[in-house]
Design goal:
Elements lengths: L1 E4 L11 H12 L8 E6 L3 E9 L8 E2 L3 E9 L2 E7 L5 E6 L4 E5 L4 E5 L3 E5 L3 E7 L7 E10 L4
Antiparallel strand pairs: 1-10, 2-3, 3-12, 4-8, 5-10, 5-12, 6-9, 6-11, 7-8
Length: 153
């Protein structure tokens, strides 16, 4: 997992090319006039979704992906996300391979707070539970989630 500010994306120029392209997209795009939904950048290699939601008091089903890297960036509001190594998950509760999402049970190892300008890059080995209300009080949020094919060309 990478957790950082969009002000520091130049530090990631030498990383996975799709991740760097996704970070640049987040830093350079004005999402304020765009509707929620899916937007393709490079077909199924690189796309993003905009979503509006209410944070929730708890998320006890971490998710993980095999085919895509997630870059999550809150555009408004704030959320907490828990992250743990996938190998520490104790059981798969709901596999949805057609959507490249698998839900698990397992321990919480780390917590990060996503606020506007901060991002988290989550790799296939990162089980993550997003959308948790900071301080337990739900608030309206809007988020961009960039999906980068692991084998980005």
């Amino acid at each position: 997992m990478i957790y950082d500010s969009l002000n520091h994306i130049s530090a990631y120029a030498g990383t996975h090319p799709g991740v760097y392209r996704g970070l640049k997209l987040l830093a350079e795009t004005d999402f304020s006039q765009m509707e929620d939904g899916r937007y393709e950048v490079d077909g199924d290699q690189l796309f993003y979704s905009l979503q509006s939601y209410q944070s929730k008091p708890i998320n006890d089903a971490p998710e993980a992906h095999r085919e895509y890297i997630d870059i999550q960036c809150v555009l408004s509001g704030a959320e907490e996300m828990t992250v743990s190594p996938l190998e520490e998950m104790t059981g798969e509760v709901l596999p949805r391979p057609e959507g490249d999402i698998r839900l698990y049970h397992g321990p919480v190892r780390s917590r990060v707070e996503l606020v506007p300008g901060m991002f988290a890059v989550l790799f296939p080995g990162d089980a993550h539970a997003p959308g948790i209300a900071v301080g337990g009080t739900p608030v309206p949020c809007r988020k961009a989630v960039v999906k980068v094919k692991v084998e980005y060309q």
